[in-house]
Write a structure and sequence with these properties.
Pfam families: Acetyltransf_6. The protein is α+β, with helices and mostly antiparallel strands. It has 9 helices and 13 strands. It is elongated, with a radius of gyration of 21 Å.
Protein backbone atom coordinates (compact mmCIF):
# COMPACT_ATOMS: atom_id res chain seq x y z
CA UNK A 1 0.00 0.00 0.00
CA UNK A 2 1.28 3.45 -0.93
CA UNK A 3 1.26 5.35 2.35
CA UNK A 4 2.62 8.74 1.31
CA UNK A 5 0.28 11.26 2.90
CA UNK A 6 -0.76 14.69 1.78
CA UNK A 7 -1.65 16.99 4.66
CA UNK A 8 -4.32 19.66 4.76
CA UNK A 9 -5.58 21.88 7.59
CA UNK A 10 -9.32 22.20 8.12
CA UNK A 11 -10.64 25.20 10.04
CA UNK A 12 -14.33 25.06 9.11
CA UNK A 13 -16.41 23.52 11.92
CA UNK A 14 -18.86 21.61 9.70
CA UNK A 15 -16.06 20.12 7.59
CA UNK A 16 -14.12 19.28 10.76
CA UNK A 17 -17.11 17.41 12.19
CA UNK A 18 -17.47 15.33 9.04
CA UNK A 19 -13.82 14.26 9.19
CA UNK A 20 -13.99 13.64 12.95
CA UNK A 21 -17.04 11.39 12.70
CA UNK A 22 -15.46 9.37 9.88
CA UNK A 23 -12.26 8.65 11.84
CA UNK A 24 -13.22 8.65 15.53
CA UNK A 25 -13.10 5.20 17.17
CA UNK A 26 -15.97 6.32 19.46
CA UNK A 27 -14.35 4.47 22.33
CA UNK A 28 -14.28 7.00 25.19
CA UNK A 29 -16.21 10.18 25.92
CA UNK A 30 -13.20 12.09 24.59
CA UNK A 31 -13.77 10.54 21.17
CA UNK A 32 -17.24 12.09 21.04
CA UNK A 33 -17.80 15.19 18.91
CA UNK A 34 -20.70 16.55 20.99
CA UNK A 35 -18.69 16.34 24.22
CA UNK A 36 -15.66 18.20 22.90
CA UNK A 37 -17.75 20.65 20.95
CA UNK A 38 -19.54 21.66 24.15
CA UNK A 39 -16.19 23.04 25.34
CA UNK A 40 -15.35 24.53 21.95
CA UNK A 41 -18.70 26.35 21.76
CA UNK A 42 -17.62 28.56 24.67
CA UNK A 43 -13.85 28.87 24.25
CA UNK A 44 -14.06 29.26 20.45
CA UNK A 45 -10.38 28.57 19.79
CA UNK A 46 -9.35 28.52 16.13
CA UNK A 47 -9.48 25.01 14.69
CA UNK A 48 -6.41 23.40 13.14
CA UNK A 49 -7.58 19.92 12.14
CA UNK A 50 -4.60 18.27 10.46
CA UNK A 51 -5.93 15.70 8.00
CA UNK A 52 -3.65 13.23 6.26
CA UNK A 53 -4.95 12.08 2.87
CA UNK A 54 -3.93 9.24 0.64
CA UNK A 55 -5.21 10.39 -2.73
CA UNK A 56 -8.70 11.63 -1.81
CA UNK A 57 -9.24 9.38 1.21
CA UNK A 58 -8.82 10.80 4.72
CA UNK A 59 -6.46 8.36 6.45
CA UNK A 60 -5.95 10.14 9.75
CA UNK A 61 -6.63 13.22 11.87
CA UNK A 62 -4.75 15.23 14.47
CA UNK A 63 -7.40 17.58 15.86
CA UNK A 64 -5.82 20.74 17.29
CA UNK A 65 -6.84 24.23 18.27
CA UNK A 66 -4.75 27.35 18.69
CA UNK A 67 -4.68 28.68 22.23
CA UNK A 68 -4.17 32.38 21.60
CA UNK A 69 -4.00 33.10 25.33
CA UNK A 70 -0.95 30.86 25.77
CA UNK A 71 0.37 31.02 22.19
CA UNK A 72 0.58 27.31 21.50
CA UNK A 73 -1.34 24.55 19.79
CA UNK A 74 -3.23 22.06 21.95
CA UNK A 75 -5.71 19.27 21.43
CA UNK A 76 -9.17 20.35 20.35
CA UNK A 77 -11.35 20.94 23.39
CA UNK A 78 -8.55 22.25 25.58
CA UNK A 79 -6.96 21.24 28.85
CA UNK A 80 -9.89 19.20 30.20
CA UNK A 81 -9.39 16.52 27.54
CA UNK A 82 -7.78 13.14 28.23
CA UNK A 83 -7.21 10.06 26.06
CA UNK A 84 -6.14 12.29 23.18
CA UNK A 85 -4.87 10.61 20.05
CA UNK A 86 -4.17 10.81 16.36
CA UNK A 87 -7.16 9.07 14.81
CA UNK A 88 -6.13 6.84 11.91
CA UNK A 89 -7.75 4.20 9.77
CA UNK A 90 -6.44 0.65 10.23
CA UNK A 91 -3.21 0.14 8.37
CA UNK A 92 -1.90 3.68 8.86
CA UNK A 93 -0.69 3.37 12.46
CA UNK A 94 2.97 3.49 11.42
CA UNK A 95 2.42 6.98 9.98
CA UNK A 96 1.19 8.51 13.25
CA UNK A 97 4.59 10.21 13.85
CA UNK A 98 4.13 12.14 10.61
CA UNK A 99 1.07 13.91 12.00
CA UNK A 100 3.08 15.19 14.98
CA UNK A 101 5.92 15.98 12.60
CA UNK A 102 3.63 18.09 10.41
CA UNK A 103 2.26 19.83 13.51
CA UNK A 104 5.79 20.97 14.22
CA UNK A 105 5.77 23.03 11.02
CA UNK A 106 2.80 25.23 11.99
CA UNK A 107 5.01 28.02 13.29
CA UNK A 108 4.05 27.86 16.98
CA UNK A 109 4.89 25.47 19.83
CA UNK A 110 2.84 22.33 20.42
CA UNK A 111 1.60 21.49 23.90
CA UNK A 112 -0.14 18.18 23.42
CA UNK A 113 -0.98 16.50 26.70
CA UNK A 114 -2.75 13.39 28.01
CA UNK A 115 -2.13 11.28 24.91
CA UNK A 116 -3.46 7.73 24.92
CA UNK A 117 -0.67 5.29 24.02
CA UNK A 118 -2.35 3.03 21.49
CA UNK A 119 0.66 2.48 19.22
CA UNK A 120 4.42 2.01 19.42
CA UNK A 121 5.19 5.67 18.76
CA UNK A 122 2.86 7.29 21.28
CA UNK A 123 3.80 4.82 24.01
CA UNK A 124 7.40 5.95 23.51
CA UNK A 125 6.52 9.61 24.17
CA UNK A 126 7.32 11.13 27.59
CA UNK A 127 5.10 9.85 30.38
CA UNK A 128 2.85 12.52 31.86
CA UNK A 129 0.46 10.88 34.32
CA UNK A 130 -1.83 7.92 34.83
CA UNK A 131 -5.55 7.88 34.26
CA UNK A 132 -7.62 5.37 36.20
CA UNK A 133 -10.42 3.05 35.12
CA UNK A 134 -12.34 0.33 36.91
CA UNK A 135 -13.50 -2.63 34.77
CA UNK A 136 -17.02 -3.64 35.82
CA UNK A 137 -17.73 -6.74 33.73
CA UNK A 138 -16.96 -9.17 36.57
CA UNK A 139 -19.19 -7.43 39.12
CA UNK A 140 -22.92 -8.04 39.48
CA UNK A 141 -23.15 -5.56 42.36
CA UNK A 142 -20.99 -3.52 44.70
CA UNK A 143 -20.59 -6.46 47.08
CA UNK A 144 -18.68 -8.23 44.31
CA UNK A 145 -16.64 -5.08 43.81
CA UNK A 146 -15.71 -4.67 47.45
CA UNK A 147 -14.93 -8.39 47.79
CA UNK A 148 -12.52 -8.14 44.85
CA UNK A 149 -10.68 -5.11 46.19
CA UNK A 150 -10.70 -5.40 49.97
CA UNK A 151 -10.23 -8.24 52.41
CA UNK A 152 -9.65 -8.97 56.06
CA UNK A 153 -9.56 -6.17 58.58
CA UNK A 154 -9.51 -3.41 55.96
CA UNK A 155 -12.80 -4.63 54.51
CA UNK A 156 -14.40 -4.94 57.95
CA UNK A 157 -13.48 -1.37 58.76
CA UNK A 158 -14.76 -0.14 55.40
CA UNK A 159 -18.11 -1.92 55.79
CA UNK A 160 -18.43 -0.39 59.24
CA UNK A 161 -17.78 3.12 57.86
CA UNK A 162 -20.30 2.65 55.06
CA UNK A 163 -22.90 1.36 57.52
CA UNK A 164 -22.33 4.44 59.66
CA UNK A 165 -23.51 6.59 56.74
CA UNK A 166 -26.44 4.27 55.97
CA UNK A 167 -27.55 4.48 59.60
CA UNK A 168 -27.92 8.25 59.24
CA UNK A 169 -30.70 7.62 56.71
CA UNK A 170 -29.83 7.99 53.04
CA UNK A 171 -31.96 8.62 49.98
CA UNK A 172 -30.46 9.13 46.53
CA UNK A 173 -32.29 11.39 44.11
CA UNK A 174 -31.59 10.89 40.41
CA UNK A 175 -31.22 13.65 37.84
CA UNK A 176 -32.43 16.70 39.74
CA UNK A 177 -30.57 19.00 37.37
CA UNK A 178 -30.99 22.05 39.61
CA UNK A 179 -28.66 20.40 42.14
CA UNK A 180 -25.72 20.96 39.82
CA UNK A 181 -25.52 24.37 41.47
CA UNK A 182 -24.89 22.68 44.83
CA UNK A 183 -22.15 20.60 43.22
CA UNK A 184 -20.54 23.73 41.77
CA UNK A 185 -20.64 25.67 45.02
CA UNK A 186 -19.34 22.83 47.17
CA UNK A 187 -16.62 21.95 44.67
CA UNK A 188 -15.36 25.53 44.63
CA UNK A 189 -15.48 25.66 48.43
CA UNK A 190 -13.37 22.50 48.64
CA UNK A 191 -10.76 23.32 46.02
CA UNK A 192 -10.77 27.13 46.06
CA UNK A 193 -8.53 28.56 43.31
CA UNK A 194 -7.71 25.09 41.94
CA UNK A 195 -11.34 24.14 41.29
CA UNK A 196 -11.50 23.15 37.63
CA UNK A 197 -15.19 23.92 37.45
CA UNK A 198 -14.45 27.53 38.44
CA UNK A 199 -12.38 28.20 35.31
CA UNK A 200 -13.78 30.50 32.61
CA UNK A 201 -16.98 29.14 31.03
CA UNK A 202 -16.81 25.82 32.87
CA UNK A 203 -19.97 26.38 34.90
CA UNK A 204 -21.82 27.04 31.64
CA UNK A 205 -20.18 24.05 29.97
CA UNK A 206 -21.20 21.64 32.73
CA UNK A 207 -24.74 22.98 32.66
CA UNK A 208 -24.83 22.30 28.93
CA UNK A 209 -23.47 18.78 29.41
CA UNK A 210 -26.60 18.02 31.43
CA UNK A 211 -28.81 18.83 28.46
CA UNK A 212 -30.05 15.98 26.23
CA UNK A 213 -27.37 14.72 23.84
CA UNK A 214 -27.77 12.09 21.15
CA UNK A 215 -24.51 10.32 21.96
CA UNK A 216 -24.19 10.38 25.76
CA UNK A 217 -26.39 10.45 28.85
CA UNK A 218 -25.84 12.81 31.77
CA UNK A 219 -26.29 11.51 35.29
CA UNK A 220 -26.71 13.52 38.49
CA UNK A 221 -27.02 11.86 41.91
CA UNK A 222 -28.06 13.89 44.96
CA UNK A 223 -27.35 12.32 48.34
CA UNK A 224 -29.81 13.22 51.09
CA UNK A 225 -28.17 12.12 54.33
CA UNK A 226 -29.87 12.57 57.66
CA UNK A 227 -32.59 14.62 55.99
CA UNK A 228 -30.18 17.06 54.35
CA UNK A 229 -28.56 17.28 50.94
CA UNK A 230 -24.87 16.61 51.54
CA UNK A 231 -23.37 15.55 48.21
CA UNK A 232 -23.99 15.72 44.47
CA UNK A 233 -22.13 13.72 41.82
CA UNK A 234 -22.11 14.10 38.05
CA UNK A 235 -21.45 11.38 35.51
CA UNK A 236 -21.67 10.88 31.76
CA UNK A 237 -22.57 7.52 30.24
CA UNK A 238 -21.03 6.83 26.83
CA UNK A 239 -20.51 3.54 25.02
CA UNK A 240 -21.02 1.47 28.21
CA UNK A 241 -18.53 3.63 30.11
CA UNK A 242 -19.58 5.62 33.16
CA UNK A 243 -17.36 8.70 33.31
CA UNK A 244 -17.24 10.10 36.84
CA UNK A 245 -17.04 13.77 35.89
CA UNK A 246 -17.23 15.72 39.13
CA UNK A 247 -18.63 15.93 42.64
CA UNK A 248 -19.47 18.40 45.35
CA UNK A 249 -19.67 17.60 49.05
CA UNK A 250 -21.05 19.75 51.85
CA UNK A 251 -18.03 20.89 53.89
CA UNK A 252 -19.90 19.85 57.04
CA UNK A 253 -20.56 16.31 55.81
CA UNK A 254 -19.14 13.26 57.56
CA UNK A 255 -15.64 12.47 56.25
CA UNK A 256 -16.80 8.98 55.23
CA UNK A 257 -19.27 10.41 52.72
CA UNK A 258 -16.50 10.50 50.08
CA UNK A 259 -16.03 6.74 49.92
CA UNK A 260 -19.75 6.17 50.37
CA UNK A 261 -20.68 8.16 47.27
CA UNK A 262 -17.95 6.40 45.26
CA UNK A 263 -19.50 3.03 46.05
CA UNK A 264 -22.93 4.35 45.08
CA UNK A 265 -21.60 5.74 41.80
CA UNK A 266 -20.21 2.30 40.96
CA UNK A 267 -23.63 0.87 41.83
CA UNK A 268 -25.25 3.39 39.48
CA UNK A 269 -22.84 2.46 36.69
CA UNK A 270 -23.71 -1.21 37.11
CA UNK A 271 -27.44 -0.44 37.13
CA UNK A 272 -27.07 1.40 33.82
CA UNK A 273 -25.20 -1.49 32.20
CA UNK A 274 -21.77 0.06 32.42
CA UNK A 275 -18.76 -2.09 31.65
CA UNK A 276 -16.10 0.47 32.61
CA UNK A 277 -15.93 3.17 35.28
CA UNK A 278 -13.71 6.06 34.19
CA UNK A 279 -12.18 7.83 37.19
CA UNK A 280 -10.07 10.18 35.06
CA UNK A 281 -6.46 11.34 35.46
CA UNK A 282 -4.65 11.49 38.80
CA UNK A 283 -4.72 9.00 41.67
CA UNK A 284 -5.29 11.57 44.44
CA UNK A 285 -4.39 8.97 47.02
CA UNK A 286 -7.32 6.58 46.48
CA UNK A 287 -8.02 5.33 42.95
CA UNK A 288 -5.49 2.52 42.69
CA UNK A 289 -6.24 1.52 46.29
CA UNK A 290 -9.89 1.18 45.28
CA UNK A 291 -9.10 -1.24 42.48
CA UNK A 292 -8.74 1.09 39.51
CA UNK A 293 -6.30 0.13 36.78
CA UNK A 294 -3.84 2.77 35.71
CA UNK A 295 -3.33 3.69 32.07
CA UNK A 296 -0.32 5.83 31.07
CA UNK A 297 -0.96 9.17 29.44
CA UNK A 298 1.85 10.78 27.42
CA UNK A 299 2.77 14.23 26.19
CA UNK A 300 4.30 15.81 23.10
CA UNK A 301 5.63 19.31 23.80
CA UNK A 302 7.82 21.42 21.55
CA UNK A 303 9.17 24.92 21.90
CA UNK A 304 10.63 25.18 18.41
CA UNK A 305 9.03 25.35 14.97
CA UNK A 306 11.42 22.85 13.45
CA UNK A 307 10.35 19.43 12.29
CA UNK A 308 10.69 16.88 15.08
Amino acid sequence: MNQTLRFEIIKDLAAAQKIWESLSPHETIYDDWDFRNTFHAYHKKELFFIVGYQDTEAAGLLALQYNNDQNYFEFWGGSYMEDNRVMVKPGYENLIPEFYNFGGTLGKPLRLEYIRGNDAYTTSLPFQDYKFVLPLKNFSDTNDYLDAVFSGESKKKLVKRLKKIDDLGVTIEEDNWADLELLINWNIAAFSDSAFIDRPFHKEIFRDLLKPHATFQARLLTFNIGGKKQAVTMGLVYNKTYASVNRGIDPEADKNVREYIHVKKVADALKLGGELFDAFVGDYGWKERWGCQKIPQHSFITSSTERV
